[in-house]
Amino acid sequence: MNDETNEEWFDPETTTFGDRLAGAREIAGMTQAQLAKRIGVKKKTLEDWEDDIRDPRAMRLSMLAGLLNISLLWLLTGEGDGPGDLGTATSYVRGSHQLLDEIRDISAQMSLNADRLVRVEQELHALLKDEDE
């Protein structure tokens, strides 16, 4: 998508969630594979979202909005700050809430990964202990 079509691709009456996601991703200069990797999903999952086959969970929606620098409201409905919008004082407040949501999501993921690490480490110790016997 080039600069001339950035304004023309989006019609709030007809675009779907998948259209908005694909357009915002392209304007951000990312491939499907790059965005999928950054949010921790398979490329096929992102393709399904862009093709309106499946919908992401709330945590992923927040991550997508943050990574693509768009408001969650715009991503879901087409209203609000979309890609390339300069923003206003109210969008700054919304942006800070998005950042806080992303921090919470990352913190939750880190906690889950820490728990997972403990479990894997315990399994490894058990295997090593069995091998030593």
The stretches of 5 or more residues where confidence is low (pLDDT under 50) are 1-6, 86-94
Cα Rg: 19 Å
Helix content percent band: 55-70%
End-to-end separation in angstroms reads 62 Å
Number of helices in the DSSP assignment = 7
**What is the CATH class designation?**
Mainly Alpha
CATH topology: 434 Repressor (Amino-terminal Domain)
Give the name of the CATH architecture: Orthogonal Bundle
Instruction: State the total count of DSSP E strands.
Output: 0
**Total tally of structural domains:** 1
**Quaternary organisation:** single chain
Shape: elongated
CATH-assigned homologous superfamily: lambda repressor-like DNA-binding domains
Give the biggest sheet: none
Order of helices and strands: HHHHHHH
Would you tell me the structural class of the helices and strands?
mainly alpha
- Strand percent estimate: under 5%
Verbal overview:
The protein has 133 residues and is mostly helical. The protein has one domain: Orthogonal Bundle (434 Repressor (Amino-terminal Domain)), CATH 1.10.260. 69% of the residues lie in helices and 0% in strands. α3 packs across α4 and α5 crosses α7. The longest helix is centred in the C-terminal third of the chain and has 44 residues. The protein starts with a helix and ends with a helix.
Highlighted features:
disordered N terminus; mainly alpha; elongated; 133 residues; 434 Repressor (Amino-terminal Domain)
How would you summarize the topology of this molecule?
Blueprint: H1 3-6, H2 17-27, H3 32-39, H4 43-50, H5 58-68, H6 72-77, H7 89-132
Helix pairs in contact: 3-4, 5-7
